[in-house]
Amino acid sequence: xxxxxVLFVCLGNICRSPLAEAAFREAAKKAGLDVTADSxxxxxxxxxxxxxxxxxxxxxxxxxxxxSYRARQVTPEDFRRFTHVLALDAKNLAxxxxxAPADASAEVSLLLDLVPGMAGQSVADPYxxxxxxxxxTWREVSLGAEALVRKLG
Length: 153
What we know:
alpha/beta; 4 strands
C-alpha cells in the first residue's frame, strides 16, 4: 500500500507551499517515512513558474534545492489523489473547502493546526517582505512538517 500523499496549498504556489513541500519531504526522509508530496496554489497567476527566488534561497540555506519546482493550480483530482490537503492559511482553507468535489477523499485542514499552540494560525506570507520573512516562513512550515511526520509515522 502506498504511503501518505500530501498536498500543501497557498495562494500562488511560489513562496509558502513550495517551502512547506520541501520541509515535509526532508522531515519525512529523515524519519524514513515513504510519502508523496506536492504543492499547489488556489490562484493561477504563477502557473508554470519556479518558486520565488527568495524561497529558493531560503530552501538552499537548509540544503534543499527547489529550483525544479513549478507552480500549479489545485485541481478537483487533487482531492482524490492526495490523502491530505493542507492549507497554509485560513483564506486558502476556505477556498479549498469551497472547490472540493463532492467525492473528495482527502483530509483538508490547516497545516499549523498540527502544531501544539499554533492551531488556527496562518503561516506567515513572506511575499511582500524581505528575506527575513522567508526565514520565518521556513521556521513555521518546518514545525508543521515535523508535526505531520509525527502524525503520519
